[in-house]
From TrEMBL:
This is Acetoin utilization protein AcuC. Pfam families: Hist_deacetyl (PF00850). The keyword Nuclease does not apply. InterPro entries: AcuC (IPR003085), HDACs (IPR000286), His_deacetylse_dom (IPR023801), His_deacetylse_dom_sf (IPR037138), Ureohydrolase_dom_sf (IPR023696). The lineage of its organism: Bacteria, Bacillati, Actinomycetota, Actinomycetes, Micromonosporales. Keywords: Acetoin catabolism. PANTHER family: HISTONE DEACETYLASE HDAC1 (PTHR10625:SF10), HISTONE DEACETYLASE HDAC1-RELATED (PTHR10625). Belongs to the histone deacetylase family.
Length: 393
């Protein structure tokens, strides 16, 4: 296996543009500008790969052919309705099929590179559209690129794939698509569905018949900070991955759990997000011979958060992590200013936060995070042969 890292990127990925909408492609543009200025994309062993549009045979492993036809037809019909399209969340836009299929193709290319041994890790930060359903757009997502890539890995011979979703919203589309497939473990940490879209992701969602225990959900109360998030992540994710023994790790790395994100209510920092990326890389190294496919996802603090968070992700995937104290390059700050986005430009790659945490223990007076951890462990750990009360599991 090559030790290279594939970064799938082309400016054509910015065509997934819903107009005056929270999911602004400028966040991806600014991410690559920042990563480039920091030298991350010029590291030895980094291979930039241009994506190609996923064809229908790849997309229909996940999506209904009638849905693909609707996505193609919708921009030509100003009165189009149905399939979740034409809503405020999922407005119809010109070239919708082509741009959505290109994002899916980019994540598929990342997955193929890792599975075939052309690279140890691969990243598509434009991807992570995890809410799309087989026949319905949802939550800003038209085609579910992580699910399409996982289906492609299964077709290539993978027998155990772990999907870990750290977006603030539940990874409902990927969970639903592989609900009955014991070859795919879906793990999602997210703000409680009692408070946030899409209203799913409770601990008792554990997988369909024959696949029980392969859906793992860790809902967290509003306001959770880095220490609570890291405590929950490490109380759940390493144990279930070790029990499942995946051959490849696929991650959705939405940055919308940050305290500045306008669409959610968690209190994370870029320092905590960086720590999560390091933890996922370590798990891929331990369990999957390093095979790690990472995507972006949500994130609506377009300047203040997403470019820094995903530049940290790119750095972690391509080699040495960026020192949090690093200054953002003047050239990048000038670019942001030239775009007249009306946002405060961060001066450093840190929020000056300490992402350390106290490991979970089943004793003591539980707080809201510990109660959530206990609920998830009690529900799903026995299905995976783990002891919910043993902190070593």
């Amino acid at each position: 296996m090559s030790d290279d890292t594939v970064v799938v990127w082309d400016e054509s990925l910015l065509a997934y543009d819903m107009g005056d909408h929270p999911l602004d492609p400028v966040r991806v543009e600014l991410t690559f500008a920042l990563a480039r200025e920091l030298g991350v994309l010029d590291r030895p062993g980094v291979r930039m790969v241009k994506p190609e549009i996923a064809d229908d045979s790849v997309l229909t492993r996940v999506h209904d052919s009638a849905y693909l036809a609707a996505v193609r037809a919708a921009p030509r019909d100003p009165l189009f309705a149905g399939y979740g399209l034409g809503t405020s969340d999922n407005p119809v836009f010109e070239g919708m099929h082509e741009s959505s299929a290109l994002i899916a193709g980019a994540t598929v290319a990342a997955a193929e590179a890792v599975w075939r041994g052309d690279a140890r890790r691969a990243v598509n930060v434009a991807g992570g559209l995890h809410h799309a359903m087989p026949a319905r757009a949802s939550g800003f997502c038209v085609y579910n690129d992580p699910a399409v890539a996982i289906a492609r890995l299964l077709d290539l011979g993978a027998e155990r794939i772990a999907y870990v979703d750290v977006d603030v919203h539940h990874g409902d589309g990927v969970q639903q698509i592989f609900w009955d497939d014991p070859r795919v473990l879906t793990v999602s940490l997210h703000e409680t569905p009692l408070a946030l879209f899409p209203g799913t992701g409770f601990p008792d969602e554990t997988g369909g018949p024959g696949a029980q225990g392969t859906a793992v959900n860790m809902p967290l109360p509003p306001g959770v900070d880095d220490s609570g998030w890291q405590r929950a992540f490490h109380a759940i994710v390493p144990s279930v991955l070790r029990a499942f023994r995946p051959q490849v790790l696929v991650s959705q790395c939405g940055a919308d759990g940050h305290r500045l994100d306008p669409l959610a209510d968690l209190n994370l920092t870029v320092d905590g997000q960086r720590a999560t990326y390091l933890a996922m890389r370590a798990l891929a190294d331990e369990l999957c011979d390093g095979r790690w496919v990472a995507t972006g996802g949500g994130g609506y603090a377009l300047v203040e958060v997403v470019p820094r968070a995903w530049s940290h992700l790119l750095a972690v995937a391509t080699g040495a992590p960026i020192d949090p104290a690093t200054l953002t390059p003047p050239g990048w700050r000038d670019l942001v200013a030239s775009r007249r986005l009306g946002r405060e430009v961060p001066l450093r790659m840190t929020d000056d936060a300490d992402p350390s945490y106290e490991p979970w223990q089943p004793t003591g007076e539980p707080n809201a995070v510990d109660r959530a951890i206990a609920a998830t462990r009690k529900t799903v750990f026995p299905l995976l042969g783990l002891d919910p009360h043993d902190p070593r599991d």
